[in-house]
Each structure stands twice: as structure tokens, then as C-alpha cells.
Amino acid sequence: MRLLFVGDVVGSPGRAGLRDAMPGLLERFEPDLAIVNGENSAGGLGITERTGRDLFEMGFDVITLGNHTYRRKEAYSYLDEAERVIRPANFMTTAPGKGHVIVEAGGMRVCVVNLIGMLQLQAARSPFVEADALVSRLSDDADAFIVDFHAEVTSEKVAMGWHLDGRAAAVLGTHTHVPTADARVLPQGTAFISDVGMTASRTSILGVKYQQALDGFRTHLPQKFETGDEDVWVNAVVVEVNDRGLADSIEQVLEPVLKP
Ligand SMILES: [Fe+2]
Ligand SMILES: [Fe+2]
Questions:
Q1: pLDDT tens, 161-218?
Q2: What is the model's pTM?
């Protein structure tokens, strides 16, 4: 089973770039399962039914989210209804949406889980305890687990890789929008990367027009933040999952979108 996982797609420029890149990515990697983090898909913050539909139409099977999940109130019912849109499992149980979904891919039952870090982000419960509970509860229902760990701090992300090594096919970090150079398969068979990165303009600071974000740092005065639209790159990983529900390889994809 081959997985394509695309990092946080930012705003309409990110979505437009991804729409241009997807046919080539699908042809090249022939993934059985395509997942994208969509927490910044709507104007750079949050998701809406429209941006969710847009990502599904490009060929994605599951959309994961993160700390910006609830930016758009109008999307709360969509989060409840859309089976393949998931938000961090360790959010409040009363919050809209759900934290995992099981899908068929490449002849396997694949459980995709979204978790959020505790450090500098708002988690209702420990992601480590939540991961244990989910994996033990769902192990009869799923042949493999894919975890999007949406977290700020690299130590917490690396820790999650070791925590789930041998139990998840992949633990893939998102949220920082900066891809890390530590992609590898851990000793017990879990593909890991601290952060997949973003699918967004590189003429930006984490997706925001760089002049605006820079002015914020320089002046400490409120700034208008707009999504950057120049030089969109795709940041992703491709993971090869074997019959034992563990990873054989993880390969990073970092490339500019070429206009078709
Ligand atoms: Fe985030
Ligand atoms: Fe993000």
C-alpha cells in the first residue's frame, strides 16, 4: 500500500498549486491512499466545505486538520458530517468532528488518526495516552495506522515517533510548515518525519506574504496577513506500507509546482 501525504496546504494559491501538481504526483507515485493536511486550506486559516470538496476533487481520500480546525464556524456541521475529514482526536470530546477514520486502500483497512501536541498548542488530553487508547481499541478493525501528529515542538514529535514505533505504519509531523530532514523508518518499522512541511508560496513566511509577516516582527504593530501566491511548492512524503502494516520506506517530495 503506497501513501502520499501532503503537508499543510495554504489558501487558494496552495490549492491551485496542488491542483496543478496532483496529476503528475498521482502518475508518478500511483498512491493507493492520498492524505492532505487541510487546516490552512480556507484563506490560510481553517477549512470550509468548499475547500474540503476542492481537495477531495483533486484525488485526496482523507483530510487531516490541526490547531486551526475551528476557525470557520460555518464548517462545524461539515466537520461532523464529512466522514473523511478528521480533526485531532485529543481535542475536547464535545468539539465538532472526529479524530480518526478507517478507509480501504490497497487491500488494507487503514486507520488514519490526527493528534495534536500538548506543547504550545491546546490539547484536551495527552496525545501519547490518546494514541495508546486508539491503537488498542481499533487494532482489530484496522491493518495499519497512519498518524498525522500536528505539533509545534520537535522533541514532542520525535517522541511520538518512538512511542508508536512498531505500532503505526507512519507518524508524520505537520504544523510548523517547514519540512525537516529526518525522514526515516524507525527500527520497529514506523516511517517518521518531524514535519512534512507546507504546500504554499515560498515567497512567504509560513504561507503569509513575507513583507507583511516581516513587518510584524520589525514593528510589533498589527498587520494585515494575506496568503502568499508566488512560487508555490509541494511538500509531501511517500510511504511504502507492507502487509504487516509497517513501513518499508519513506521518501520526501519537495518541489516547485510547474504550470501545466
Ligand atoms: Fe497548525
Ligand atoms: Fe498549518
A1: 999 999 999 999 999 999 999 999 999 999 999 999 999 999 999 999 999 999 999 9
A2: 0.97
Query: Which residues belong to the active site?
Result: 68
Task: Tell me which ligand sits closest to the C-alpha of residue 198.
Answer: 2
In three state form, how does the secondary structure of the chain look? CEEEEECEECHHHHHHHHHHHHHHHHHHHCCCEEEEECCCCCCCCCCCHHHHHHHHHHCCCEEECCCCCCCCHHHHHHHHHCCCEECCCCCCCCCCCCCEEEEEECCEEEEEEEEECCCCCCCCCCHHHHHHHHHHHHCCCCCEEEEEEECCCHHHHHHHHHHHECCECEEEEECCCCCCCCCEECCCCCEEECCCCEEEECCEECCEEHHHHHHHHHHCCCCCCCECCCCEEEEEEEEEECCCCCEEEEEEEEEECCCC
Ligand 2 centroid–CA 243 distance in Å is: 32
Q: Residues 115-156: pLDDT tens digits?
A: 999 999 999 999 999 999 999 999 999 999 999 999 999 999
